[in-house]
Amino acid sequence: MANEQDSRTATQQDNLKRRTARSMKWNVIDRFGSQILYAVTGVVLARLLSQHDFGLVGAVLVFQAFASLLIDSGLSSALIQRKAPSRLDYSSVLWFNIIASFALYAILFMAAPTISEWFHGGDQLTALARVMFLSLPLNAAAIVQTNLYTKQLNVRPVAIANAGGLCAGAVIGIWLAFAGYGAWAIVWQTLTVAAVKTLMLWIMSQWRPLYRLSWKALRSFAGVGAGMMLTSLLNTIFLNIYAFLIGNRVGLVSLGYYSQADKWSKMMTASLSQVLTSTFVPVLSGVQDQAERFARLASKMDRVTAYILFPAMVGLAVCATPIFHILFGDKWDASIILFQLLLVRGIFTVLTGLYSNYLLALGRARTIFYLEVLRDAIALVAIVITFPYMALSTTANIVLGVEILLWGQLAAAGVAWAASLIAVSHATAVPIRRYLADIAPYAAMSAVIGVAMLAIGNILGFSPLLALTAQAVFGAVLYFIANRYLGSTVQSEALAYILPRRKSSKIDASESR
Question: pTM to 2 decimals?
Answer without folding.
Answer: 0.70
